[in-house]
Design goal:
- By secondary structure, this protein is an alpha+beta fold.
- It has one domain: 2,3-Dihydroxybiphenyl 1,2-Dioxygenase, domain 1.
- It contains four helices and 18 strands.
- It has an eight-stranded mixed β-sheet with strand order 12-13-14-11-15-18-17-16, covered by helices on one side. It has a five-stranded mixed β-sheet with strand order 1-7-10-9-8, with helices on one face. A five-stranded mixed β-sheet has the order 3-4-5-2-6, with helices on one face.
- Helix 2 crosses helix 3.
């Protein structure tokens, strides 16, 4: 199995909970400093961060899997096949270092995925299986990987079993879906390993906007060539002097 599950660090768990609930997500795990929310497709984890700390307001790219050992084996096999097809190892990809390595991380046994740009992320064992049936089926969690090596990032995601999907432009972007829910995006960026968080909504975007606004949030809408996007002020921005970009929610895409 493969499910999108980024982790967002925040000192404002209460406001995040309010917003995610408005979006139709359902909290399925809560031990105080760690909470998980299910969308119709994909999952999001919130983790407490001290106010003003370096982690506060940041997102960590990540996925969930079933059997860690089997996942690591398949990922490494796929990576070797991809390297063979390309005819080279690629920068930063020594042959004696596996792409997927089983590790004992701070949060427990996990699988670290290493990309050729030096970025790494965790594939963690899923705490529970299917997404909550009460979550809005129109909402999808999106995790974004920013990198200068978009080709290498896309190759890594193919190796972990993510499925490519069409993108509107033939540029440096790449989109993938996970078998068990969620979307993974690769976008150009100059800061290796920077991750982003957003959502896609396949239902009535105007209705969702009205619902969010009725709860007191100011919502902006942008019209783009390939669809509309709502922008909601980040809950991290409340009471913070730091800049926190808005949370984006994209409607159905056109032209793909």
């Amino acid at each position: 199995m493969l499910r999108v599950r980024p982790i967002h660090f925040t000192s404002n768990l209460e406001q995040w909970t309010r917003l995610l609930t408005l979006l139709g997500m359902v909290r399925t795990a809560d031990d105080g400093e760690w909470q998980e929310f299910d969308a119709g497709s994909g999952r999001l984890a919130l983790r407490w961060a001290d106010p003003g700390s370096a982690q506060d307001g940041t997102t960590v790219f990540g996925v969930e899997v079933g059997d860690l050992d089997e996942f690591a084996r398949r990922t490494n096999e796929a990576a070797v096949e991809a390297e063979g097809a390309a005819g080279s190892q690629g920068a930063g990809s020594p042959a004696d270092e596996a792409m997927a390595a089983l590790v004992d991380a701070d949060h427990g046994r996990s699988c670290r995925i290493r990309a050729r740009d030096g970025f790494s992320f965790f594939a963690d064992p899923a705490a529970h299986g299917a997404n909550c049936a009460d979550a809005d089926p129109a909402l999808t969690v999106v995790a974004v990987w920013f990198t200068e090596d978009t080709e290498g990032a896309a190759s890594t995601l193919r190796s972990i079993g993510a499925r490519p999907r069409p993108v509107p432009d033939n540029d440096e972007t790449a989109d993938f879906t996970a078998k068990n829910g969620g979307v993974l995006m690769v976008r150009p960026g100059t800061a290796p390993g920077r991750a982003g968080l957003g959502f896609e909504y396949g239902g009535d975007l105007d209705g969702l906007r009205a619902q969010i606004e009725s709860a007191g949030w100011d919502v902006a809408a942008t019209e783009e060539a390939f669809g509309r996007t709502l922008q909601v002020p980040s809950p991290d921005a409340e009471g913070s002097a730091a800049h926190h970009p808005p949370l984006w929610i994209s409607g159905p895409r056109r032209g793909v």
